[in-house]
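Need a sequence for this fold. Nothing fancy.
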C-alpha cells in the first residue's frame, strides 16, 4: 500500500481531513524513518484554586486572608519535607482523576517569582509558560519571553501542518483588561500568539476551507473519497477509521447544538451577555475534542487550551452549579463566604480536564499505546491560591508520557523550586537540546523513568 499516514484525504474543492495513526498505513512513515511522536498539551485554569480542596493535607487549614504575593513559604503542605509518595487518596478537587491516577503525577512545591510593578493576574497568565527571570526582559513590565510551547515547536513543529495550536474558552467580548490577562501563548516579548475562541473557526482552520464549507459538511466530502482507502485497511483499522469519523461527526453535531442555543439566547434580553448563559462544560469539552483530534491526526504536536481569562469578572453559568451566571474572580475574593461554591468550580474545571485525559487514554496509536501515553498533558494555574494571589506552591498535575515518565505519585518538591524546572524537563522530553529554561535550576528527576 502506497498511502502514507502523513498524506491527507482530499475531497471536492480541497477539503482536507488528516488521518489518525493506523497500523495498515503507518508502515510508509516508519520506512521513511518516522515514528509516533511525543506531543505536548497544556490545560490552563485561571484564578488559581482553593487550596484546602486541591492540596493533600490542607483540608483543615485556616483559609488564608490578604494578598500574600510572592511569599517563599508554603501554606501548609502535607509534609514539611520534600519527597515522593504514592498518590493514593485523592483530594476532593482531584477526585475526577481517580480512574487514571496511575497515569499522572501531582507536583507541588513549584514557585514563580513575581515581578513588582504590574498586576498579579496579568503576570500569572501571560508569564505562566515563560517564567523569565525578573527584570531581565528589556522593554517589558512583565517577565514575559518566548513561551514553552513555541520553544518546543521550534524543534518538533517543522513536519506538522500547524507548529502550534492555541485554544481559548473565553467567548466574551467585554474585555475590560489587556491581552496579558487572556493569553498564555506568546511568540516572544510583546508578540502574542492569538488563540481561537470560536469552535467553528477552529474546526474550519483544521479541516476546511471557506469554499467547501459554503456547500457541504467537510466530513461528507471526505467520506466520499475515503471508501477507496478503507477497503485497503485491516479490520481493526477499519473499526478505528469508523470510530474516528464518528468523533468528527459528534464534534459537528455539538457545534451545531451550541450555535443553536446561542441563536435562541440572543433573542432574550438578559442582564448579562448572551455568552454568559452558554453551557460552559459543553464549550470547554468541544474545544478539548478539537484539540485532541488535532493531536491524534498529527495536525500539530503542540497545543495550549486556556479555560478562561484572568480577572475579567466575566460571568458564566458553570453548567448545573448555579441558577445564574457567576464571576469566578469575584467569588475568589470572598473565599471565606463562598468556599463551597469555589470548591464546586474547581472540581468542575478538573472534570473538564479529566474528560480530555479520558479521551486521550481511549485513543489507540498504531503501536498499541494510547494518545495519552504519547502526550505530556499538564493541568495548571499561575496562582497557588486565587484569594491570596500567591505565586508559590502552584497547583500542577502532569499526565501521560507513557514509559518515559514514572507516574502515580505526589511529588512534593523543595520550597522555592522554580516552575521552570518542569518546563525544562518537558522540553527535554520533547527532544529540545537546551541546558536551561528561564530561571530553571535543573530537571525534575523524580518523574523521569
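Here you go.
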Amino acid at each position: 500500500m502506497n498511502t502514507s499516514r502523513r498524506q491527507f484525504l482530499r475531497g471536492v474543492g480541497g477539503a482536507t481531513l488528516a488521518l489518525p495513526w493506523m497500523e495498515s498505513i503507518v508502515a510508509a512513515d516508519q520506512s521513511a524513518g518516522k515514528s509516533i511522536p511525543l506531543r505536548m498539551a497544556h490545560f490552563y485554569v485561571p484564578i488559581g484554586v482553593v487550596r484546602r480542596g486541591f492540596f493533600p493535607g490542607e483540608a483543615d487549614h485556616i483559609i488564608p486572608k490578604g494578598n500574600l504575593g510572592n511569599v517563599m513559604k508554603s501554606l501548609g503542605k502535607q509534609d514539611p519535607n520534600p519527597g515522593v509518595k504514592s498518590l493514593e487518596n485523592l483530594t476532593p478537587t482531584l477526585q475526577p482523576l481517580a480512574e487514571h491516577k496511575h497515569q499522572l503525577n501531582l507536583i507541588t512545591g513549584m514557585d514563580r517569582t513575581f515581578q513588582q510593578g504590574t498586576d498579579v493576574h496579568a503576570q500569572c497568565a501571560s508569564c505562566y509558560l515563560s517564567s523569565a527571570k525578573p527584570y531581565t526582559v528589556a522593554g517589558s513590565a512583565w517577565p514575559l519571553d518566548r513561551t514553552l510551547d513555541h520553544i518546543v515547536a521550534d524543534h518538533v513543529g517543522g513536519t506538522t501542518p500547524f507548529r502550534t495550536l492555541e485554544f481559548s474558552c473565553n467567548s466574551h467580548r467585554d474585555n475590560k483588561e489587556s491581552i496579558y490577562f487572556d493569553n498564555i501563548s506568546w511568540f516572544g516579548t510583546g508578540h502574542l500568539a492569538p488563540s481561537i475562541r470560536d469552535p467553528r473557526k477552529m474546526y474550519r482552520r483544521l479541516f476546511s476551507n471557506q469554499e467547501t464549507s459554503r456547500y457541504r459538511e467537510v466530513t461528507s466530502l471526505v467520506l466520499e473519497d475515503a471508501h477507496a482507502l478503507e477497503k485497503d485497511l485491516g479490520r481493526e483499522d477499519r473499526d478505528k477509521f469508523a470510530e474516528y469519523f464518528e468523533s468528527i461527526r459528534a464534534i459537528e453535531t455539538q457545534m451545531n447544538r451550541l450555535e443553536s442555543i446561542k441563536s435562541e439566547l440572543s433573542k432574550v434580553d438578559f442582564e448579562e451577555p448572551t455568552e454568559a448563559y452558554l453551557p460552559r462544560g459543553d464549550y470547554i469539552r468541544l474545544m478539548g475534542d478539537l484539540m485532541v483530534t488535532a493531536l491524534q491526526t498529527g495536525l500539530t504536536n503542540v497545543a495550549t487550551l486556556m479555560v478562561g481569562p484572568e480577572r475579567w469578572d466575566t460571568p458564566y453559568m458553570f453548567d448545573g452549579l448555579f441558577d445564574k451566571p457567576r464571576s469566578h474572580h469575584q467569588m475568589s475574593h470572598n473565599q471565606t463566604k463562598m468556599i463551597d461554591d469555589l470548591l464546586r468550580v474547581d472540581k468542575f474545571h478538573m472534570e473538564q480536564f479529566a474528560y480530555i485525559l479520558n479521551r486521550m487514554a481511549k485513543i489507540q496509536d498504531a503501536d498499541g499505546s494510547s494518545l495519552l501515553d504519547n502526550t505530556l498533558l499538564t493541568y495548571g494555574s499561575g496562582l497557588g491560591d486565587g484569594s491570596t494571589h500567591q505565586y508559590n506552591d502552584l497547583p500542577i498535575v502532569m499526565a501521560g508520557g507513557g514509559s518515559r515518565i514514572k507516574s502515580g505519585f505526589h511529588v512534593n518538591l523543595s520550597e522555592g523550586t522554580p516552575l521552570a524546572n518542569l518546563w525544562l524537563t518537558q522540553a527535554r522530553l520533547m527532544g529540545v537540546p537546551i541546558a536551561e529554561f528561564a530561571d530553571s535550576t535543573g530537571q525534575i528527576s523524580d518523574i523521569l523513568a
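For context: Residues 1-16, 71-79, 211-215 have pLDDT under 50 and may be disordered.
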